[in-house]
UniProtKB/TrEMBL annotation:
PANTHER family: METALLOPHOSPHOESTERASE, METALLOPHOSPHOESTERASE MPPED2
Quaternary state and interactors: Homodimer.
Protein's organism: Oreochromis aureus
Alphabetical UniProt keywords: Hydrolase, Manganese, Metal-binding, Nucleotide-binding
Cofactor entry: Co(2+); Mn(2+)
Cross-referenced InterPro entries: Calcineurin-like_Pesterase, Calcineurin-like_PHP, Metallo-depent_PP-like, UPF0046_metallophosphoest
Protein name (record): Metallophosphoesterase MPPED2
Entries under SUPFAM superfamilies matching the protein: Metallo-dependent phosphatases
Domain of life: Eukaryota
């Protein structure tokens, strides 16, 4: 049992028995529940950029994992830009400034950004540990003085930056969070299981759009070179059983670029960079009907 409806109607997610082995979790839930195959899930074709936006809709432009390689990206028409993290290589202030300048030149009415594991300077606990334990792993980051990065978020003047927080834009409630399962000890890494679930439990019900850096289990989370599923099981259960956003946008696994749906939530892996860090995957546009109160 990974989700229970309590007496007051609230759904509580608990740690899945397969949490620590997502490939095994995928196989188990697929064999026993067909959870990741039709009719429960489908691939979705991206809409062409010249598709007219339906009346009463907002057009979201999704990008992720641009890794300081924004120069050649052709950006399509839209209302709101969503960037799901890894906008730099190492979170150096110079990279953040360059990214912010790029954002400033884009025509969208709103731009919403979260960090990924590469935005090292945005993770204060990571920076504190880096100085103590692993001085030579990221020399250019270790060389920074605290005053260079203490306020690195403030360099993002051309967007709304979300970190375990939400914003309402054009009536859509959007929540953003940077955490991913531990992998090689980068920023915003946490162990699978309760540590990550504690972060997902901060996501309020009633969110329309969820932005995470990494994928949930089973949705655009396949790493071919390792024949592994690497999505987070607790994130999937939180999305499908508790929060139920209309759109879950992420990146993180560059090879997983693409769109799927479970019939209610659309899952977009918008990784711009390929596995070889070439920024060649086009931005993905997605139209959502405006919430009725806006
Ligand atoms: N087996 C896993 N591979 C992973 C994981 N997270 C990322 N990756 C691989 O690295 C690239 C690039 O990721 P980045 O964060 O360095 O930009 C990604 O496309 C995967 O191939 C993981 O948790 N497990
Ligand atoms: Mn990346
Ligand atoms: Mn990443």
């Amino acid at each position: 049992m990974t989700a229970a409806r309590m007496a007051h109607g609230k759904v509580t997610i608990t740690v899945d028995e397969y949490s620590s082995n997502p490939t095994q979790a995928f196989t188990h839930y697929n064999i026993n529940q067909s959870r990741f195959q039709p009719p429960h899930v489908h691939m979705v074709d991206p809409i062409p950029y010249d598709t007219p936006k339906p009346a009463g809709h907002t057009r979201f432009v999704c990008v992720s994992d641009t890794h300081s390689r924004t120069d050649g990206i052709q950006m399509p028409y839209g209302d709101v830009l969503l960037h799901m993290g890894d906008f730099t290589e190492l979170g150096l202030p110079s990279e953040v400034k360059k990214f912010n300048d790029w954002l400033g030149g884009l025509p969208y009415e709103f731009k919403v950004v979260i960090a990924g594991n590469h935005e090292l300077t945005f993770d204060k606990d990571f920076m504190a540990e880096l100085v103590k334990q692993d001085y030579y792993r990221f020399p250019s980051v270790s060389k920074l003085k605290p005053e260079d990065f203490d306020n690195v978020q403030s360099l993002l003047t051309n967007c709304v930056y979300l970190q375990d927080s939400d914003v309402t834009i054009k009536g859509f409630r959007i929540y953003g969070t940077p955490w991913t399962p531990w992998f090689n000890g980068w920023g915003f890494n946490l162990p699978r299981g309760q540590s990550l679930l504690d972060k997902w439990n901060l996501i309020p019900e009633g969110i329309d759009i969820l932005m995470t850096h990494g994928p949930p289990l089973g949705f655009r989370d396949w790493v071919p070179k390792e024949l592994q599923r690497v999505g987070c099981v607790e994130l999937l259960n939180t999305v499908q059983k508790r929060v139920r956003p209309k759109l879950h946008a992420f990146g993180g696994i560059h090879e997983g670029y693409g769109i799927m749906t479970d019939g209610y939530t659309t899952f977009i892996n918008a990784s711009t960079c390929t596995v070889s860090f070439q920024p060649t995957n086009p931005p993905i546009v997605f139209d959502l009907p405006n919430p009725s109160s806006s």
